[in-house]
Amino acid sequence: MEAGRADKGAGRESRRIRRLRGYLAALRKRLPVGQRLRDGVEHALMSTAAALAAYLPTQALGLREGFWAAITAIAVVQTEFGATRTTARDQFVGAAIGGVIGVAVVLTTGQHIASYAIAAGLSVLAAWLLNVATAARLAGITATIILLVPHPGTSAQQMMLSRVFEVGWGVSVAIAIVWLAERLDPHSAA
């Protein structure tokens, strides 16, 4: 009985959150063009700075596929620091979950399409069970990268470590860029 009430309550909360997101999106669309332009330029500059700062040192850091750090930085940068932190957590946790499960599946069943299906499904499920459902997509994406993207001369374990480090680096740079931008923005003083 208690579990049924908790499930209904959680469902109601999820619907409320989706409704609030819809309201926020509608409010953003009603902003004047000039404000949208200023906000867009600010976001574009932060995203570009984060992508470049994440990508440029990847070779020196020994990261073979530095583009993942740049992609992660762009995906993480939000217009405010709290949202950036949440997105960063999702990116990193999702990469870690998908990486660990992807490697575990490859080591136990080999690398074929059935293994991929198992790894992707288990990665999404694990994120939900660990109460980070917002990281589920990223977990599935990382499992996909480990099992479907060819990496000649690289083991699944090396690929997982590389992916997690690249994501971690991109996340760290994005957080630093948004944190710095908020402190330099004279309009963000609270």
TrEMBL record:
The chain crosses the membrane at residues 92-119, 125-149, 161-181. InterPro entries: Memb_transporter_dom. It comes from the Bacteria. Coiled coil: none annotated. The keyword Transmembrane applies. Residues 54-177 form the Integral membrane bound transporter domain. Pfam families: FUSC_2. Keywords: Membrane, Transmembrane, Transmembrane helix. It is found in: Membrane. It is a multi-pass membrane protein. This is Aromatic acid exporter family protein. The keyword Glycoprotein does not apply.
